[in-house]
Amino acid sequence: MAHSANFQQSLGWLSRTFPAALLVLCTVLVGGLLAGPGAATADSDLPGCTTDSSVPNELTVTCDPGSGVGEHAFIRCRDLLGMPHTHIGATIGTDGGWSRANCAPAETGPV
Known about the structure:
Layout: H1 2-34, E1 49-52, E2 58-63, E3 74-78, E4 84-88, E5 97-102
Antiparallel strand pairs: 1-2, 2-5, 3-4
């Protein structure tokens, strides 16, 4: 009899938790779908800099020395639930160089 009561208590907890978890999951999924696409490239008006998005799930900004100081690459990606995420690369210094932003392994981008 005690085992039956414990089983009923565990079902009561599950019956309260499952709808709440399902509601959170649906909210995240709908929020990701309604968020819409974001910018996938850096500012295209940066003189002396080029943007390369030819590699899937990656964005690279390359700048000549003295160009793009303080700028960085950023990429918008979507996870498996459709939620958008922004990933930011390293800051470009006074010597120029490159900044690369990558999506996480389970994400796709740019979106």
